[in-house]
Automatic annotation (TrEMBL):
This is Vacuolar protein sorting-associated protein 28 homolog. Belongs to the VPS28 family. The lineage of its organism: Eukaryota, Sar, Stramenopiles, Ochrophyta, Bacillariophyta. It comes from Skeletonema marinoi. Residues 116-212 form the VPS28 C-terminal domain. Keywords: Endosome, Protein transport, Transport. The keyword Acyltransferase does not apply.
Length: 215
């Protein structure tokens, strides 16, 4: 009598792996992460346009996605761009392209009454989050850290009305001096990583306190 149920798979058949090494697995993970961020941004932008999320919810989530995108994009390498990545995987996400590659800040801040100041603040917040996330992900190479800290310093100096020896700028510039004395392929050690994160966290708190005094 023939069984009506399918027989078990032949256990002798070999499985097919997407990767053969840790490096290849990391490569696929990075690309999957970038794909997910772009898609999430597209859906968030649609939800905001349809008034399905509040301004506060949209701004918080959009800032997170922009920061995550900067890290994920840097993992693509020098031989591939986000545009070519999206074309390769047939990603039709015009809203995400506009937000991540063109505007770089949430729409809710671009359209606020105090537009210029809001843009500067939003950019600075995103740069803080990105720099701290890079450390959390243990991307400790000098040539990875340096561009993020430069972006952060450049946005901090655009904050109007700050004192000449303002703490957040001083802390970031001290680390820029240290990293500039190192070679591009050098890595900071665990102690430096923890100290840099602590300094950035402290600078971020001081930055937020300053903003509260200006409201």
């Amino acid at each position: 009598m023939t069984s009506r149920w399918p027989t078990a798979l032949d256990q002798s058949l070999s499985t097919i792996d997407l990767y053969e090494s840790h490096t290849e697995r990391k490569h696929y993970d990075n690309r999957a992460n970038l794909y997910a961020i772009i898609m999430a941004t597209e859906h968030l932008e649609r939800a905001y346009a349809q008034d399905c999320v509040t301004n506060a919810e949209y701004t918080t989530e959009c800032n997170k996605l922009i920061s995550q995108f900067k890290i994920a994009e840097s993992a693509l390498g020098k031989n591939e761009s986000t545009e070519s990545f999206m074309k390769k995987y047939q990603m039709d996400c015009p809203r995400a392209v506009n937000r991540l590659l063109i505007m770089g800040v949430p729409e809710s801040l671009r359209s606020s009454d105090d537009g210029d100041r809001a843009l500067t603040v939003a950019t600075t917040v995103a740069n803080f989050i990105t720099a701290m996330d890079v450390l959390k992900l243990e991307q400790l190479d000098v040539d990875v850290l340096l561009p993020h800290l430069i972006d952060l310093r450049n946005s901090l100096v655009q904050i109007s009305g700050t004192p000449k020896d303002w703490g957040p700028i001083q802390k970031v510039e001290n680390w820029l001096v240290k990293l500039n004395f190192m070679r591009a392929h050098d890595r900071i050690d665990e102690n430096d990583s923890r100290q840099l994160y602590l300094d950035l966290d402290s600078a971020y708190s001081e930055f937020n306190q300053y903003l509260k005094t200006k409201r």
